[in-house]
Amino acid sequence: MSTRHQLLYLTALLGLVSLAACSTNLTNTPTPAGGVLSGTIQLWDDKTSTLADNSGVIITVDDLTGVSTITDAAGKYSLANITYGLHDLTMSKAGYGTFRLFGVSTTSSINGTILPATQLGKLATTTVTSLTLSGSAYNGSSGVSVLYSVAPIPTAINRGYVRYFLSTDPAVSSTNYTFTSPIVSVLNNNVTGGFTKEDLLTAGFKSGQTVYLRLYGESVQSNTYVDPNVGTRVFPNLNLTTVEAVSFVLP
């Protein structure tokens, strides 16, 4: 073989070796095991106003040891290298109700996993100060009516908010209940509230049962969530300072 042919052969051989090395490098590039998990949190007072400063909310990945971050003033947060799969998150700040997300799926999309905006409300400042039975009818129908007051005294501009909890158990509470109402707006004191018999039957109670009713101050952004570990709804923003439950027999 001539010297020229030897040089051409050697050049071609080196090119093949280089190509093989590149192919090997491409094939052996490790696949990332995790990605970015991000989102935004908007803080509220316990009424109907959003806050301008959304900093200081701690976001923790419950199932990963030592993985957490904190929101900036805009409420933005970002967690890097979160393993692909399902995760549980806790969002909390002193003075605000803790909120939890279960089974958050992280994916390998180019922008990572971006969660929907979370609304986080302040703990309720409304305190229930009195609660008594006031009749066996409500809104002109058979049922039950109650009379209650709250503090501070609400006004049309600065309303209070409450939530009812009902059960056949005398120890009815925010964690031991059969039925809970939506949030109720309170415009003044000495408020009459209640339920018709039809409301109570629809809620699962039966005629002749003794029903116990308890009332708590609540935040408009109540951060409620269902905990799949216990199968019940959690109400993190309630003001747990309240009065004794009242009872009545369902007609």
Report on this model:
A hairpin with a 6-residue loop joins β5 and β6 (99-106). With 251 residues, this protein is mainly beta. The strands form 5 sheets. Strands 11, 12, 13, 15 and 18 form a 5-stranded antiparallel β-sheet that branches. Strands 1, 4, 7 and 8 form a 4-stranded mixed β-sheet that branches. The chain contains 2 helices and 18 strands. Mean pLDDT is 90; it is low at 12-17 and 19-25. The chain has 2 domains: 34-120, Immunoglobulin-like; 127-249, Immunoglobulin-like (Sandwich), CATH 2.60.40. Helix content is 12%, strand content 42%. The longest helix is centred in the first third of the chain and has 25 residues, at 3-27.
Largest sheet: number of strands, sense, barrel closure: 5 strands, antiparallel
Globular, elongated, flat, extended or rod-shaped: what is the shape? elongated
CATH architecture of the largest domain: Sandwich
Strand content: 35-45%
Radius of gyration: 29 Å
SS field, number of helical segments? 2
Strand tally: 18
- Class from helix and strand fractions: mainly beta
CATH class of the largest domain: Mainly Beta
Q: Which blocks of ≥5 consecutive residues have pLDDT under 50?
A: 12-17, 19-25
